[in-house]
Batch of 2 targets.
Target 1
Amino acid sequence: MRLFLPLVITFICGIVMILHFFIPHRPISTIGDGLTDWYMIVASAAIFLGAANLVQVHVHRINTKARNWKYSPVVLIGFIAMMATGLLWGVEETLPFDYMFQTMIVPMGATMFSLLAFFVASAAFRAFRASNWRATLLLASAFIVMLGRVPIGGMIWKQIPIISEWMMQVPNMAGQRAVMIGAALGVVATSLRMIFGIERSYLGGAD
Amino acid sequence: MRKLLEMLDRVDRRVIYLLMALSVFIPLALRLSYPIPVGQGPSQDLFKAIDSLPSGSVVLVSYDYDPSTMPELQPMAVALTQHMFTRGHRIIAMALWPQGASLSQEAMSAVGDSLGKAQYDDWVNLGYTVGAGVSIVRMGSSIRAVFPQDRDGFPYDSIPLLTRVQSLRDIDLVISLSAGDPGIHAWVMMAGDRFGLPVGGGCTAVSAPEFYTYLGTGQLLGLLGGLKGAADYETMVREGRGNTPAGLATPGMAAQSISHLVIMAFIVIGNISYLAVHKRRKGAPK
Amino acid sequence: MNWEIIGIWLGAVLTLMLYSFLYRDNPFYKFAEHLFVGMSAGYWVIYNIFNVLKPNFWDELTGAGDGSPDYFMIIPGIFGMFMLARLVPKIAGLSRMALAMIVGTGAGLSLVSTLQTNCLSQIEGTIMPLSGVGTMGFIDNLIVVVGVVCGLVYFFFSKPHEGLTGKAAGVGITILMVAFGASFGYTVMARISLLIGQAQFLLFDWLPTMGIHL
């Protein structure tokens, strides 16, 4: 019984969405549209769950004086500051919420990911080894693409951008397509297993 | 020589970081610039698709990214918006990523103001929606059901641009600027294959190779891949427009070129020093 | 007070705090990292309230949008509450109902859409002519057809990769290596582009506030 109702809900929702695809007419379309409207509300609750969990974790870290707990108030202050400015003034341009987004979140987000440029450089030096002919092929392919996608490649040899584009459109596409078809078959199989209640791992973890 | 190779094998990671930083900062500081030739390719396909739409067409642009990939995708957004406005198209912006809603406002209002385009008549920002593919499917029957109001809280029915736009079927072209999932995949699946809309895209360089599959089948009519794609588009938009500023992506391409050479040098040197040191250790008596 | 310059300085200081990690992990980096997490979460919640919850749920339920209340909206409201029940250990099991709805809807949608877009359309796109397309067209199409088929053979693990299957899988992995090489090249490009973006911010937005114009 603990899992019966959730499995029934999964089955009904899954079947409705499949029928919605094949029969875009009433009454299926009305039911399907209603389900998608509801889905948006429930999915948005997941975002609240994530935020509440973040607050819970950091309050717990402060209470127990866990490792690096001194930074937890920073998380909470950042969270409350955005919440307060958003609730008090709204999200329109030039208001405090948008100002904080543009001047703090944007540079921090961009910087966080730009750090990866350094790690890629380090990995290129230490880990990218032409240890066999297939690894060498991978390396050659990477070199051609790296040169072909920047102006200097064409300045070195006019054919490099053309070869690079050909590589993208022919061998790369073939490889990517094989991966895509394989992954798609996996998604289809997993979706079927979920709808028919064979795959239940997503229901675990809460007693 | 061998000592040098051994030293290279043990080089501190911070030296590599410093060289990497210099390869980006110096070309930018010196304002190095290389010409950007635009050949036949997915960037030009997208440009032509937008160019060939009749004036007044409604284009839906989905900002499916956040600040972490903004340096690649925001230049595309600006260049695309410039192109569409100069061609007389009207733009509906939305976002499948929360922070895309603010980034779209920034791009649309800046370009709109510079070209004298009015919000709600020539462009509108519907904001963020949760649910990705599910929301797109719902937009197939009613955009209003997903966005009862725009980002700033104006009711859907009171926005002049949207009076004749009920569902995705009233949209002439969809463009997804995508940093991952949800993004181009969802738009091709739902808007393209399910509702038959033409879909174009711009994406981070990381995800560009996988979208060549969609280009090959015609499911995606054009693609801007990374900073290079953005620079291509800026170049095409500027062609024949005299003193138009260089855009956001074009000035970065010289730094991109130099840093690619530096990374390639790292790989070559790393391999040589590894081989030299490794061979020596292999040959050493146990 | 010039808010624009203050904003640029805020961004620049936070940027430099994060870059300090390249030297070693330090309190400045940790401070900025934690601030980023907190502010991003706050942003998500606010946009969720203003762009989803208020217009799609509250206004629909109360009739504030079009004047006619939709009482059926109580149902997703209850499911949403079930989702939040996960925070209270005693009633955490209720969250399964909400999860079931999310997973079921997503599975139903992705099953048909993925099959259509990423499988059938790709197979259709791989059925290519080998004649009447010129020499280059023949070579290109042959590489695509052979590459896709052999790539799929490589992913097929129900049969040992020996004999003809092994040879086909060998061709498949070779094509995949070229594709992964292209992906690596593009990944390098992407990461550097992000660094260029921040370098441009520091050089052309921040330095001029100190009178340094490059």
Target 2
Amino acid sequence: MKRILALILATLMVTCLFAGCSKEDNSDDLKYVKDKGTMVVGITLFAPMNYKDANGDLIGFETEFAKAVCEKLGVKAEFKEINWDSKEVDLSSKNIDCIWNGMTITEERKANMSISVPYMKNKQVMVVKKENAEKYAQSVEGAKISAEAGSAGEDLANTDEFLKKGEYLSADSMATALTNVHAGNADVAVVDYVTSIGSIGEGTDFADLVVVAGKEFSPEEYGIAFRKGSNMTEEVNKIIAELMADGTMDKIAAKYKLTEQLIKG
Amino acid sequence: MGINPTAGQIFKALLEGFWVNLEVFAVTLALAIPLGFIISFGSMSKFRPLRCWDKSDSQILRIISKFAPIKLVTRTFVWIIRGTPLMLQLFVVYYGPGLLFQTPFRSPMTAVLIAFVINYAAYFSEIFRGGIEGISKGQYEACQVLGMTKSQTFFKVVLMQVVKRTIPPMSNEIITLVKDTSLARVVSGVTEILHGAYNYTRMGLIWPLFSTGLFFLAFNGILTLLFGYIEKKLDYYKG
């Protein structure tokens, strides 16, 4: 009996704790972050957004972008790896102060968090050998189409009116899908533009591969997520506009081959 | 498959995947055994085109006279195949022709079967070589006395003894083959059982991955009984 009582009490206490959390006022988040002097940035590692270079140092488009914004805010950026599936909990429990990791803006996320202006667009694209680009821009009938199992690309290859005319070949990663096209085992790879653009073209082993121009699927936009009701969002939006205007964003994006993906003003 | 597949649907999908494993298993076994015999003959070949220098006064010529090209080729082949991972060989067979000669494999399954047959033939050849070389010289001499030809000696006297002697090491290899078939998934488009199970882990279901073990365990159980039966049947002669 005592144990059951203890369990009920514990459950009640935890519930109160969570209830307390959700009701917490985030309207002066800016002051909270400025007072402690660091902004904890929640990331997961993936190129070209946040990843480690040969020396083990964190680099990437989002890494440099976050540092530039923090510099203007007058705080230090501290990067913290999170579990993507529990990012909302990390954010509301103040383990992190923002999610800054090529996060796609969705209605659901907008309802649960405060999201910055979109700063970058992404899309799913077809990657083919240079000489086949024109042919497959017309039709992929009879072509073999490879995509990573479980990815948005796989979905498209099987459901999209244009793409499902080809024969689907499942690959275990994006790199395998690209290798299939490079070696000729498949004709088209359907991949995420932002994550794949760094691995094809000049200077890579996939120098013979190009993105088919004018064929884009499931366009999406990236934003930074702050706690719901946070006043950080407004401040950061202002800084993003400044960085876009003074060319800082262009410089960072060019470094990671993402210039065309920036959303300016 | 719906959003939340039932256990029955999952087992059916896994069984379909396991069918691919069984295909790889059956074809590999059927083709690798004859190929293994051919390779083992190569490894035992005594063909020496320069044997005329055997009794030469020059030591260098005597060393050169030991040169046996067929044996050298097959033993190098066995060294390469046994010395590199099967997974790497799968990549080389699948991507190699496309990357080197612009004639890519369009059928992933063909590439998988070629890689498996070559790999297992190399292992089998060494088992067969052991079996054949283990037959005592006296038996060959007896056959010669009886006036049997070389092929008669091999098929009527040697072969059945080799089969009997190599059953235990072969059953080892064959059981390993059953499990190795799951490596076929590294070639894009080969949807064997683990490939299917990993698809479920992406949907947040881990138990299908672990339950794949049951399929392998059941099939290897049947094989174990079968080998036990064959060994018993061949036990009429103690040599």
